[in-house]
Amino acid sequence: MWPVLRLLRRGLSTAAPRGLVYEKHGEPAQVLRLKNLAIASPANYEVRVKMLAAPINPSDLNMVQGTYALLPHLPSVGGNEGVGVVAEVGHHVSSVRPGDWVIPVDAALGTWRTEGVFSEEALVRVPSDISIVGAATLSVNPCTAYRLLSDYETLRPGDSVIQNASNSSVGQAVIQLAASLGITTINVVRDRPNLQSLVERLQDLGADHVITEEQLRKPEMKDLFKNCPRPRLALNCVGGKSTTEMLRHLDYGGTMVTYGGMAKQPVTIPVSALIFKNVKLCGFWVTQWKKDRYQNREEITKMIRDLCDLIRRGKLLPPPCTEWPLEDFSQALRDAQTPFLSRKQILIM
User: Fold this and answer.
1) Out of 59, 189, 190, 258, which residue is the most buried by the measure of CB atoms under 10 Å away?
2) What are the residue boundaries of the Enoyl reductase (ER) domain, all occurrences included (predicted)?
3) What is the pLDDT of residue 193?
């Protein structure tokens, strides 16, 4: 563990900029190398940022592997998310100034580095009175959860939502955001040796019901809906049988949104769900959502402002994390790919 605040007390490093660079696609542990980076002074509309922290997300690993929908030109620095402090601004930069904290708006920025120069429009300012880990993990998973709960069904207090992969970072954010809105969550997880510990942790975040995929398939599920309305919204990050089983419990006219496919299995939809239950099926990718609003930032800035307000009020906690100095990236990558670990790996710069 490497406490973030200790780094801040020491001041920002003056060492040569470094980053985790990959020159070809492959397994991250095999193709990523810690290298010195050449950093120029920011030009017009550019910002030099000293990174503070950056998480390792599944999408980051997929990008290095070459299996993600968005792939940068190679060689490239890994990482899509993180938080940094503005060190210098070029001419005509108006939205940030030195000392501000910033996070990426777009993907493929290359955040696994100590320092970088980015375009002003690729960054958005966040308040520095929230935790560094909270800021570093803000731009992907909480934003995904926010949009999933906002954009597909008009949910009111007392309504319910069902989701799988509930212990994922998005799932934990959904639980907390829904709780702040008075929305009931039905949370599906895979069975595991430490199941009771996981159930208690999700309940501490505000989960109303936590069930396993096996329980989801049992006839006893109907008893749950004696005191809980059938969900109008289902959030799918798994695919395969888990998706089909969630559909069985969706209310008439409800919506299922798929935002991931952890099982790497197709989404199979019974014909009866479409004809007799009139369910709607949608897909969501937060990267595309942001790209569609790249020139008009009002929705993005409002979302970030709302999420930061929830963080300040203790209504939105970051996922459990393990912090690693950048030099220990190999172990951080191994832990990020370890099943059932349920901790976000954070690189500290």
Assistant:
1) 189
2) 29-347
3) 86
Domain count, the chain: 2
Q: Which one is catalytic: 22, 68, 152, 259?
A: 68
Statement to judge: residues 172 and 249 lie in one domain: yes
Residues 155 and 196 in one domain: yes
Q: Helix 298-312 crosses helix 169-181 at what angle (to 10 degrees)?
A: 80
Instruction: Give residue-wise pLDDT tens across range 306-335.
Output: 999 999 999 999 989 999 999 999 999 999
- Does the pTM surpass 0.90? The reply is yes
Radius of gyration of the chain (CA): 21
- Mean model confidence pLDDT for the chain: 93
Question: Distance between CA 57 and CA 336 in Å, rounded?
Answer: 8
Going by C-alpha positions, the residue among 247, 299, 318 that lies closest to residue 276 is: 247
The CATH number given to whatever domain includes residue 58 is 3.90.180.10
Its domain, for residue 331, covers 4-137+318-348
The reported pLDDT for the residue numbered 14 is 61
